[in-house]
Amino acid sequence: MPLAFRNGGFAFGIVGTVISGIIYAHCVYLLVSTSRKACRRSFVPMLGYTETVENVFTHGPRGVKKYAILARRCTDVQLLLNSYLLICVYLVFIGNTLKDIVNHDFQLGWDTRVFIFLAAVPLIFTTQIRELKYLVPFSAIANALIITAIGITMFYILKEPISLENRSMWPAWNTLPAFIGTVMYALLGIEYVLPNENKMKRPEHMLGNCGVVNVAVCFITALYTIVGALGYAQYGDDTKGSVTLNLPANEALAKSTQLLTITAIILSTGLINYVPTDIVWRKIQHKIDPKRHNFAQISFRFGMLVLLTAIAVGVPELEPFVGLTGSISGGSLVVIIPAVIDTVFRWPGGFGRMNWILWKNVLVLVFGLLVLGIGTYFSVVDIVAIYEKE
């Protein structure tokens, strides 16, 4: 988030983060409420993200029915891209963090790529966990570690006097897409909303004024705004891809934040890997002899980790990967798809007085297209520039 504020400016960063949080919460509401209405209409107990998309198109207006399978496949692709890009980001982050710690302590000059390979080793085991109920405790521990790391990071941020002198208040035209992409990356997680709601004893608690979504989004938006604003105010243009990389490399307490964050990421990677693996496995399992299912699962999970490690090694820079992931996944999964399925489900007459809901959805859709198109373009340009420089 301090990186986001570096790209967006202090004043615009605060306003933009709050607005992004509101948009995110609204789009989650669109997804969950549409999924519930689709379930009631089709007399099914629950639907996942892709199943909701297919169901809405299948029972939608005549002109979109034929695109139901295509819509589901496009959603599957977006979910795959989101999860696998996140794992790439995690590998690059762990590699850069380990490089700072190990090279400083042992006076080594190892390249970041070496540490990315080392980072992949523990992920071999966490990505092999197949049951969601076993992954949730790991995620809970990871959250506790992250909160602890944030507390220590804030201690260092506030340790020295903070000044807004020489700090940008507003973004430049070429840094605005990076700001939006980074904020959307920080807010990612919409793909887990429906699976979690479907596992809840009281799924009605997901929405509502004091529901899970609103409480969670308010909390993380406030947390991200505080960390982003204060982190950028403290480090300015020297702010790195993760603020933990700005902390003193020679102090044990500062190192602990990096180690806590690395541990949290390793523990949470299994959950990140759950969605894409489940999507692919459901499509290919019928083609494999049931006696070889276990071996096939192990091989596929390991093979994807090798491929993702190779991608991370190819571009071992954190900032453009964060922007790319946020732009692609935030623009499509978080904004575009929820707005589209809500519009299709309501068509042609469920948009309220003067069709205000339709106009609102159009504005949300335009915002998502801008995030997806412009943000992805600038992120790819940055990645290509890094690759050519090397």
UniProtKB/TrEMBL annotation:
Domain of life: Eukaryota
GO MF, one example: L-amino acid transmembrane transporter activity
A GO CC term assigned to this protein in UniProt: vacuolar membrane
Transmembrane region(s): none
Entry keyword set: Membrane, Transmembrane, Transmembrane helix
Coiled coil regions in record: none
Membrane topology: Multi-pass membrane protein
Domain Amino acid transporter transmembrane, residue spans: 1-380
Locations listed in the record: Membrane
Record carries keyword Transmembrane: yes
Record-linked PANTHER family: AMINO ACID TRANSPORTER (PTHR22950), GH04538P (PTHR22950:SF494)
Protein's name according to its UniProt entry: Amino acid transporter transmembrane domain-containing protein
Record organism: Aedes aegypti (Yellowfever mosquito)
